[in-house]
Design brief:
The relative contact order is 0.17. This protein has 366 residues and is mainly alpha-helical. The chain is 66% helix and 0% strand. Helix 3 packs across helix 8 and helix 4 crosses helix 15. The longest helix is centred in the C-terminal third of the chain and has 35 residues.
């Protein structure tokens, strides 16, 4: 049995023991979402029908690559949030997977409608549609839907990992850790369908940080320090960028396991910075985008999918200014998300009896 108490992240009023509140999670998701859109806009020039002139400056590509850190932040937050859920049963994971798939299918319906009526997308076989509905491998229309399959794997692994964490036999835990690591390395190396499991390392980092209350300890330390907080925040953010450049540009010390620390340092730095400077309107903006982060993740694929980008880029990229391109993608996707959200809520309410049939069994703690 696990002897460490947990709290529910689903509540908007987390107890004082938590260094990261419900709204802080939304804020960090909003920040990660803005980084994601930036990454997709500037990291891969071949995603454009006509490559804009601003790609002649390599700094846009460098910035786009650094912004890929957003995926590590999302994965880190997934592990952190899961630890704070009281319920860690298999049935809970299945219910979360169903709820997530409903959100994704609603987004797919909207994108498919736009692609069919405005972009001449015509699926030839039923398998083409099924491949988009269950994006395990290739997904030309839902261009950024790889996270759906990763989310399913993650939610199915979580209950098993939590049970291993709660084993009283230390040697038994280490045997399970090593066995699980070898299995994951084997799957990622030899089976392309599981290649995205490599991101699970960031999820485990978030889980470990939450369980060991690392952010809480940092918060308590900073309460005793009356100076230098801004320097600590800048150092954390700078170190995060250096570590990420280390991975994606093969610079500095070369590739290595230190890349796992990058999301942690960035999250810590941002939280410290915002604890010093309140920045009310910036917080509100990031929280707003955080609420729509999942939808925008899916919906902005309209601009870069091979099935739709020839039309979307023609009519929406009226300016070759990089800021104009970025805002076009972000704001149009946000508008679609605002329209889509009520429909998603209606679908979830209609399917609630089905989801509720999966009885939630709480993972008992001492």
């Amino acid at each position: 049995m696990c002897s460490i108490p947990t709290v529910s992240i689903a509540s908007k009023n987390l107890p004082e023991i938590s260094a990261v509140s419900y709204y802080d999670v939304l804020l960090l998701k909003g920040l990660a979402l803005l980084m994601m859109v930036f990454h997709h806009c500037f990291a891969v020039p071949v995603w454009y029908v006509d490559v804009p002139d601003f790609f002649q400056c390599d700094w846009w590509i460098v910035g786009g690559r650094v912004a890929k850190q957003c995926v590590g932040i999302f994965a880190f937050l997934s592990g952190w949030v899961y630890w704070h859920h009281q319920n860690k049963s298999w049935k809970y994971s299945v219910s979360k997977i169903i709820s997530f798939l409903l959100l994704y299918w609603c987004a797919f319906a909207l994108i498919a409608g736009i692609a069919y009526f405005f972009c001449s997308w015509r699926p030839e076989l039923l398998s083409d549609v099924l491949r988009e509905l269950f994006p395990v491998n290739l997904h030309p229309l839902m261009f950024f839907a790889w996270y759906v399959w990763f989310y399913i794997q993650m939610m199915l692994i979580f209950p098993l990992y939590h049970r291993i964490e709660c084993l009283e036999n230390r040697w038994g835990r280490w045997v399970c850790y090593i066995t699980g690591l070898l299995v994951m390395v084997l799957l990622c190396s030899h089976f392309p369908v599981f290649r995205d499991l490599a991101w699970f390392a960031f999820v485990l980092l978030g889980y470990w940080v939450a369980r060991r209350r690392v952010l809480e300890k940092i918060k308590q330390f900073l309460l005793r320090v009356n100076y230098g907080k801004t320097i600590i925040a800048c150092f954390s953010i700078g170190l995060a960028l250096i570590l990420f450049l280390d991975i994606h540009m093969n610079s500095f010390t070369g590739r290595g396991p230190w890349c796992l620390l990058s999301p942690f340092f960035l999250v810590t730095g941002v939280m410290i910075f915002l604890s010093i400077y309140r920045m009310f309107y910036l917080r509100k903006l990031l929280i707003f985008f955080g609420k729509h982060s999942v939808n925008i993740w899916f919906l902005h694929s309209l601009f870069f999918s091979p099935e739709t980008r020839h039309v979307m880029q023609k009519y929406f990229f009226v300016s070759t200014n990089p800021l104009g391109v970025y805002l076009s993608v972000l704001l149009f996707s946000l508008c679609l998300s605002i329209v889509l959200t009520p429909f998603q809520k209606w679908v979830q309410n209609m399917c609630r009896p089905i989801i509720s049939c999966i009885k939630v069994r709480s993972f008992e703690t001492k």
